[in-house]
Amino acid sequence: MSEDMLVYPTEKVVGVLDDHGAVDELRSALAEAGASEVEVLSGDSGEEQLDPKGDDHGPLAKAMRTVQKALGDEAERLENLNDELERGNLVVQAGLSAGDDDAREQEKRRIGKVMRQHGVRSIAFYGKNQIEELTLDA
Fold first, then answer.
1. Are 137 and 90 contacting, i.e. CB atoms less than 8 angstroms apart?
2. What domains are defined for the chain?
3. Which of 136, 116, 112, 126 is nearest to 22 (CA)?
4. How many whole angstroms separate alpha carbon 132 and alpha carbon 111?
5. How buried is 120 (Cβ within 10 angstroms: 0-12 exposed, 13-18 middle, 19+ buried)?
6. pLDDT tens digits along 39-75
């Protein structure tokens, strides 16, 4: 399995950005909000990294994606993100730096709000064993 395949964005807030021109300002705002490891996936390289079926990364990756599909909605979410990349949109991921649960909860909400303020949509938190849609108050 290739190292560049996105296995699972653990402890990250992930969303879709339509406006390519907003990336620099979004990165700065996320850094100010305390996000770590901000990554923006785009185009063919982003699609290759997501590889929702595992086709581009060998039999082990394909088997892993099959298991993910059987056990939860992660595979479907990766398919949806891949579809967004195919439409020319960007997938933004921002890691959390906080350690304890209360701080993590505050940080993921803060990062989600910053993303929303900069036009990111379909925002979700990918935890160790969960995916949580972030419904953020205005």
1. no
2. 12-133 (3.30.70)
3. 116
4. 14
5. buried
6. 998 876 554 554 445 555 455 544 554 454 445 566 6
Contact of 70 with 62, CB cutoff 8 Å = no
Q: Which two tokens stand for residue 110?
A: 């803060």
Q: Parallel, antiparallel, or unpaired: how do β-strands 36-41 and 90-95 relate? A: antiparallel
What does each C-alpha distance from 54 to 6, 68, 87, 112 come to in angstroms? 10, 11, 20, 28
Q: Could you give the count of Cα atoms lying within 13 Å of 134 in the half-sphere of its Cβ?
A: 28
CA 78/CA 137 separation, integer angstroms: 26
How big is the CA angle at 69 (ends 63 and 73), to the nearest 5 degrees?
A: 150
Query: Which sign, positive or negative, has the C-alpha torsion 40, 46, 49, 54?
Result: positive
Give 2-42 pLDDT, tens digit per residue: 345 445 678 899 999 999 999 999 999 999 999 988 999 88
DSSP 3-state of 90: strand
- Give dist(CA 27, CA 40) in Å, integer: 9
